[in-house]
Design goal:
The protein has 209 residues and is an alpha/beta fold. It contains ten helices and five strands.
Length: 209
């Protein structure tokens, strides 16, 4: 089986050889053929700034092209910085039919038990995303309750007269949203909000939409 090995150390004075030695020994016991070794010797901050230049990114780029059957890592924390980061990589490997082995945690996604762990990790990541989204929504509700504006500031400051003219132009079929946005130098979203705000004023008027 053609496999890739990935190792990472966080500082320049650390040596990845200890990780690589254990991974090579494991590959030998499984009769794996090591096609390539990928080593990152950078901190997490540098990895984030120069992601395209890292061995990790090169591994992802090579995964399909070089037809790996398995990726070996020493431990999860040497491969990914977070559960969501790990899950994205595992999903990529899974879509390509590439197994993933973490030596420290004894996880092998080519086995039923390993696939179960992958499913659990996916559920944890989904829960994490849901909790974060709920906290964001709660924060936005709290901010609105205090009178704070949420989102980008409006592109243009329209007077009440302009807003009513926009609504009249739309509901009386004088112009489309796009035409009104160009005429008043504003966004289509603003035009739509103006039309909705004055909808009741034109609902019974003849010739309205």
């Amino acid at each position: 089986m053609k496999v890739a090995i990935y190792a990472r150390v966080s500082t320049s004075d650390q040596n990845p050889e200890a990780q690589l030695t254990q991974l090579r020994d494991y590959a030998a016991t499984r009769s794996f053929t090591i096609h390539r070794e990928y080593v990152d010797q950078i901190t997490g901050a540098v990895e984030k700034r120069k992601k395209r230049d890292t061995a990790y990114q090169q591994l992802l780029d090579d995964a399909q092209r070089l037809k790996f059957k398995c990726v070996l890592v020493w431990k999860f924390d040497r491969f990914a910085r977070s559960v969501s980061h790990l899950l994205r990589a595992l999903e990529t490997f899974n879509s390509l039919g590439i197994a993933f082995v973490s030596l420290g945690e004894q996880i092998d996604t080519s086995t039923p038990a390993g696939r179960m762990v992958f499913t659990v990790l996916g559920a944890v990541a989904e829960l994490e995303r849901s909790l974060i989204a709920e906290r964001v929504r709660a924060g936005m509700r709290n901010a609105r309750a205090k009178g704070k504006c949420i989102g980008r500031p409006p592109r243009t400051q329209l007077s009440p007269e302009d807003r009513k003219s926009i609504a009249e132009g739309y509901w009386c079929r004088k112009a489309s949203f796009r035409q009104l946005a160009r005429r008043f130098d504003t966004s289509i979203g603003t035009v739509q909000r103006c039309a909705l705000a004055y909808r009741k004023d034109y609902a019974a008027a003849p010739g309205t939409r």
